[in-house]
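User: Can you fold this complex?
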Amino acid sequence: MSVGDFIRNSQVWKSIFRHPAPRDRRNRVVVMLTNVFLHLHPVSVRKSGIALSYTWCMGGLTFFLFLVETVTGVLLMFYYRPTLEHAYNDILALRDVATLGVLRELHRWGAHAMVITIWLHMYRVFLTGSYKPPREFNWGVGVILLVLTLLLSFTGYLLPWDQLAIWAITVGSNMARATPLLGYEGPGAKLLKIGDVELIHSGSDARFLLLGARFVGGETLLRFYVLHCVAIPLAVAMLIAVHFWRVRKDGGISGAL
Amino acid sequence: MADKSRRGFLRTIFGTWFGIAWTALTASAAGMTLGTIRFLYPNALSEPPSKFKVGFPSDFETGQVDNRFKDQNAWIVRIRDPQLGDIIYALSTTCTHLGCTPNWLEGEQKFKCPCHGSGFKITGVNFEGPAPRPLERWAIRIAEDGQLEVDKSKKFQKELGQWDDPESYVKV
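Assistant: Here's the predicted assembly.
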């Protein structure tokens, strides 16, 4: 008996893979349907669906970059502390002290690339008309994923805690002042009051909620860090699962139905 | 792999585009795994150094316990030893029972552990409570500039006879 047969006949192997090798059509289907990751993917795809000239593989590349960002991000979390005292120095230490601190550059460039691949992915979906019914819901899911990706970039931008980061977030978050009704300089905010007491002021509006303070400071750094590393990635991961599942349920990848 | 000769193996992994692709993928995956493991070993630590200077021998009075370096896990003690005369040694502040930090009680002339009541004499020898053995000493020496230098990378245990080692104390 060869080593390969010995492994494939072992109880460990059989407990993981409860079916024969995918050598015939039936077992290829079974492999896809019994695996929690693979079952998000259609059992079979049209030739055009895997033609690079047709899809550009931009959705796949975006997912790959999300995985790159996740892995490098987790590694960076081992060296980065989101406090006023440590944040900037930890970034410098990643560059100057840590071996392979280039992971941080990988994380940053991966983030830039992810925004570009999402944009190209949406462009392709638009050109091939793949947003049309019955795929209009999945287009909506994709738009939310785009917004969440931009928010990941925005929150991640603050973490190096240099002058560029602080002022970029100061300027960016100032837009929240002008939120209708909920920003204290926004239209309609003055309407929300009980008697003479204004409900929306600089210490209670949308910007205050975002920053955790009236100005970008230690509270903001912690808040953006948690959003960047936990809250938004969790939401993105769930929506990616929905997105892939709906590609399958809506009739497979791209192309006319 | 039908051809089991060495040349056949090399031809399999480098001889076709498919083989080259798998070889490159395997090599880069292995490289990334090793690189990731290396990344997790930090090159710089923010721990306090294990060697530190505590002052000149003349700064310490006979019969006194110096509490200033308790944060660095050391008491500097100068006593008159019956055989050696005046000596200075550095005691670890870790209780030998379960690892709490005792306090030096000047009035009662003992180290008293608040956790379970172990007591140690000024020499570090246990005499009451559950502690099974004396406190440990750190290595101490007179550095080139004449100051005492404690080295926490070496420890000396009385019950093993290591307090006779001249590295475990400084004769004044």
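Chain A touches chain B at residues 75, 78-79, 93, 97-101, 103 (CB under 8 Å). The beta strands of chain A are 193-194, 197-198.
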